[in-house]
């Protein structure tokens, strides 16, 4: 991070911890990396309601699960059914970033995340449809969670690699009402992705309670469709050679093969900003056993290794600056779809007490704008060989929410354009060498709540 001289040292340290993964010290801009994930239904229903056919004391088992999470050190872990034994898992786990429980049965969703990476925008969403046809799925507010995870960030904040992570637990059972509810659940996640994850790489994993071999479970196949979310299932991709199965192959627990199908699934996709692909798939069953060899859950945990890269993308992104209100947006899909290399012809900002809007017009006439209509407009026309290469953002608090109060753009010719009111909490962003700022991503409403910059080669 490159704060201005107005930023106090304590604040600089706090912002650095927010934006960087634990232990990240790289001075050079990272353009590729790897990480792994785990999805595990931890069988955390109260023992009096459901034993999950797992021997032993559930509190003791939860402590063992947490200890194994810590020892195996998966980068991002999604857990489901994390209800009444949540505290025991967190007691022995050591991941630096963890979601707070939403409560036990009848109060919470049972969905939590343990991560080595920081994240922003965490949100819980309850299913709009549930069914008690064959079980008590409506007893507790099951649904899905969303978070934007920083899998890698340069120490200067000039570049960052974000992935949108979704954790879900769909309706169980195979009665007609269950089937209808589960289809609605998966389609609800797909609709959320279409709105909130535009332009972003995505990972969806959790307990779908679905199988490809069930003819009624069409929604999970819909997730693979380019007309909806265009996600990839790494189990289908790597284990089943790209062929979606139609015949049922149930797994034992613990499973000794990856060929069988479970309801615990993972889906992913790349974006114009980040190439993402799975490199391995496995059921991590043998890693999650009690000392006597018994299972710790009635579900086989799912482990995926993934590789990411910005080296092969035509666009890159800076770190985010600001708060967590407003609607997510990204110019990346528009920029990636242009026939020619993007370059701003005019910059236009609006601001007064705060930053009301940011926008630009590209040389091909495309207009990109985000925010409201308040404040005073200021524009700068760029020359044919002039590029937008640097920006400063300053933050402040309004109505209890952090927002961007000020922007300063600097071109390759040394000219500037500013809007809003500068504060003592500022960060500078420089386009990588040979690149330029061509668009935006973040959150906005009447003002620019959160902002990052999209880069393209000159």
TrEMBL record:
InterPro entries: Endo/exonu/phosph_ase_sf (IPR036691), IPPc (IPR000300), Jacalin-like_lectin_dom (IPR001229), Jacalin-like_lectin_dom_sf (IPR036404), Sph/SMPD2-like (IPR038772). SUPFAM superfamilies: DNase I-like (SSF56219), Mannose-binding lectins (SSF51101). It holds the Pfam family Exo_endo_phos2. GO terms for biological process: phosphatidylinositol dephosphorylation. Residues 326-457 form the Jacalin-type lectin domain. Keywords: Endonuclease, Hydrolase, Nuclease, Signal. One of its GO terms (cellular component) is cytoplasm. GO terms for molecular function: endonuclease activity; phosphatase activity; sphingomyelin phosphodiesterase activity. Residues 1-26 form the signal peptide. PANTHER family: SPHINGOMYELINASE DDB_G0288017 (PTHR16320:SF1), SPHINGOMYELINASE FAMILY MEMBER (PTHR16320). This is Endonuclease/exonuclease/phosphatase. It comes from Podospora appendiculata.
